[in-house]
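Sample entry was shown:

___
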Amino acid sequence: MKHPLKSESENQEPAAGCCRANINRRLVVGGIVGIAASPALAQGDSQNADAASAPPQPGDYLVRASGDDQTTPLTPEDIVPNSAPLQAWPADSATQTVRSDNWQNLLVLTRWDPAVLSPEGQKYAAGGVVAQSAICTHEGCEVTSWIPENFLMECPCHLSRFDPRQNGAVMQGPATRKLPALALKLDGDRIVVAAGLDGRVGG
């Protein structure tokens, strides 16, 4: 049986839409108010806007992509083991800017006993948590379905399936490339980015 991805539990709302146009882009920086805005303010806004659309960077922490709390850094305990992925955005640790202006930055997080992860998956994991791109490598739709019987993620557009335990490997086409994976590490109890995505995002 297929289920839409839930952020943490069966009580949460499913992710909206299957394609990039349906991803909820959250604007982190507003426009400059007033004609007389200072050059320094304009420069600061520009830098924050750039940070909001930049790809995940080493040192970024991760936050929920939906729900009431989209600012608190995620920890392994926030992710239910062996369950539907939690959708997340990376956030700049220096400015606390959530990188949600770029649809390609949407991630899916799952948590496992490290023993069930592939060798490559173990290298990318932190506290049993692995992160992959939420964007299908076939035609760029958002991967929003979860098949609990075999722990696979499925793209609802053309039914490609991916295994988060095997570093996002393709288990069923038409996609031919795995989901790009993000190397993680722990900073205290926070999940942070250790290295950027290991492949091209989308189709």
In short: The radius of gyration is 17 Å.
